[in-house]
Amino acid sequence: xxxxxxxxxxxxxxxxxxxxxxxxxxxxxxxxxxxxxxxxxxxxxxxxxxxxxxxxxxxxxxxxxxxxxxxxxxxxxxxxxxxxxxxxxxxxxxxxxxxxxxxxxxxxxxxxxxxxxxxxxxxxxxxxxxxxxxxxxxxxxxxxxxxxxxxxxxxxxxxxxxxxxxxxxxxxxxxxxxxxxxxxxxxxxxxxxxxxxxxxxxxxxxxxxxxxxxxxxxxxxxxxxxxxxxxxxxxxxxxxxxxxx
Amino acid sequence: xxxxxxxxxxxxxxxxxxxxxxxxxxxxxxxxxxxxxxxxxxxxxxxxxxxxxxxxxxxxxxxxxxxxxxxxxxxxxxxxxxxxxxxxxxxxxxxxxxxxxxxxxxxxxxxxxxxxxxxxxxxxxxxxxxxxxxxxxxxxxxxxxxxxxxxxxxxxxxxxxxxxxxxxxxxxxxxxxxxxxxxxxxxxxxxxxxxxxxxxxxxxxxxxxxxxxxxxxxxxxxxxxxxxxxxxxxxxxxxxxxxxxxxxxxxxxxxxxxxxxxxxxxxxxxxxxxxxxxxxxxxxxxxxxxxxxxxxxxxxxxxxxxxxxxxxxxxxxxxxxxxxxxxxxxxxxxxxxxxxxxxxxxxxxxxxxxxxxxxxxxxxxxxxxxxxxxxxxxxxxxxxxxxxxxxxxxxxxxxxxxxxxxxxxxxxxxxxxxxxxxxxxxxxxxxxxxxxxxxxxxxxxxxxxxxxxxxxxxxxxxxxxxxxxxxxxxxxxxxxxxxxxxxxxxxxxxxxxxxxxxxxxxxxxxxxxxxxxxxxxxxxxxxxxxxxxxxxxxxxxxxxxxxxxxxxxxxxxxxxxxxxxxxxxxxxxxxxxxxxxxxxxxxxxxxxxxxxxxxxxxxxxxxxxxxxxxxxxxxxxxxxxxxxxxxxxxxxxxxxxxxxxxxxxxxxxxxxxxxxxxxxxxxxxxxxxxxxxxxxxxxxxxxxxxxxxxxxxxxxxxxxxxxxxxxxxxxxxxxxxxxxxxxxxxxxxxxxxxxxxxxxxxxxxxx
Lengths: 245, 751
Fold this sequence. Notes:
The structure holds 2 protein chains of 2 kinds. Chain A is an alpha+beta fold.
């Protein structure tokens, strides 16, 4: 009797533990999916992007660009300021295909960024960070804790990455990220992104993302304005011809 | 002076207690003594090349660069690349590391079917492993200037992994962690660690090792010599105590004044111990010889006799060390001079106050018996060496003179062979890891001596970039420059992939837009300032020959003169420029410090003897010794470097003491007896004994430096020991002969 009890106890324990784990995993996956939905649900988006680069002495440098985006894998980034960079445009297409247009040369070049850990145009955002691919495609989530207003997930990359993990705080009401902390393979935090979201129409918009490179003590703020969603952009808006115009 | 001696006896307890309290207070300071192994910090700020080098090294991170060389049969091998990746990864995640660059993660811009591939040389997640892949990697690496000889050695047997350290991190700690981590990987390939942060670690270890091993050794050795000479406990303990306290005070004050221990000043305790103990020996000797009263009465009497000669001995020695304050290029040498003379001053003060106070405080009649037997034994020993010497000198004064003349002529011949050496790598023993790494760097990667050409102007203008490119081409025509790197190279490369050829575009707009692609690359802060108003060409110099460096500096100066404009100001710095200055300063510093020391010593001795002529006589043996010293350096190939340049002045400062000792003894006896022969004989036999003991103990102290880890300090030890013997011998042979010959003439004329 005692033995059976013990065995069933163990069995019960295993079942409970298993279900807790799976519930947990499911929860984490669900939460991350919901975050992806919030971030990537608009069909398309246009807006103005202001990039403020702040070095460790506090010196600022400002760049401005117009952004066009369709789904989560087509995007045009067209710089408007400073004057020396005005007109430079980057077209991102699916499967890591990118084209760069330099107006001074009047020509475009396909660029492959086989290394996604490189920073994008002098910012603290890597090509990897800029990628609009759903997080749930790239990372395995784990729920570490639930706080009053946030879920804290630990994201472990599924494929190649310079990060060992990303710890993300997700708003538990609206499911947008509030904070992402990036860890290198030595498990030290190397970067940190703070998000401010506002509601534009039906969607949550990342009004400002402040990325800090903790090693270099360098910051980049990306601020969005004039954001419009679902204006009916088509694939034709994301061609080399459009890039060059 | 008698008052001074009396008050010392009177206030003996106050003196003893004050000394002890000071020693405890200053000794406590030593616990926070820091080691400074940063050679760069020793470069003088008032020299433009040196201060520019410091500035550029800090601004563009070159001084914080560490290097790991991996050597094996063939680096283009799947397993080896895997190991390089392992090293790269483990450095990358080390705390305090800013960037790592290796063959497995280096940036590569290539033309990819009409597109630009800004990527890495290899895919670090999918390293090449088939023979075909590896062969094509090899062919590609050797086809690009950016990689060939820079990241892979020309023979394909070695690869370089470079890392930079964050500005606010402790460079030495980071470098040590990197080394430990990599060694823990237990890789089969040979690994060498280089770069300044690594070198600093090695130097720190050497500094500590020298202190730990040499200080006790010199202590024991001096104790042994003292025991043999005095055969009494006080005779051993008191001189060592004085010198020991002087060392504590000096180090304590160094800490209070904000100075750190360098690879030169770490030998200061050894030198103070060797020289400083001598003053107490003189004082003790005198007190022992004055034995007609109580301890207190003896001390008073002895002190009033001895204070002047001891003071003079210390003053001349301190002058020797102070003399290179004015001529030395490196601040660490200057600091060494200042603090060593301070230590000597402390030894002097202690031997004139603390020692008499202790003797006065000790109970009376302790050592009379001992002292007598000692005198007798000593005399017996001296008879065998010094008495025959006396008869030799009297019989053949001219032979002695001739022998010295021959030696000096030979030495003058030898002097022409003296070489100078400023290469830091030579300062380490052949098997020292730093030296080995430097050798490998030189053999495989065109050296490790950084060269920076600094351009001030708008870095995005075609003119500036074209001038940069021109400078690079010009530099590479110099045999000792193999690779150069600048932002101009990157712009050319980018222009090429934009389909406009490998050249600098003619329009600024194009440059600005190419720049857009480079912004944010790890390499950029190492090549251009954040406001793009300053850029550098980074290069390495392959030779360590002074001549070659001098030629290079001249060669570059010509270019700068012809090409530097208001819109594009060009300056050059780097180790060749700094070494060239250092090299020039060596001879100049040798000359000025020696002249200064000779003048000061002549002045002091002249005033003391109240005779100019005797002042000159006193300096003859010592100047002869200095000549022989240089001759010895020429014949043995010991080069004149930042440390050995000090020997001549130090020799002068210490060695003159023997002459002073002999002359004053002689004068005293000549006045008493009026007979040259008696005066000379007594001087050599009695005074000579003290000189011999002093020569042996000081030379033995210096010889301990033979065990130093730092080559110039070994040479410093040998040369000073030689000089001590030379000046001792000079004062016992050459000086008496001069005195005999000159005074005989005088007596002949009189009679």
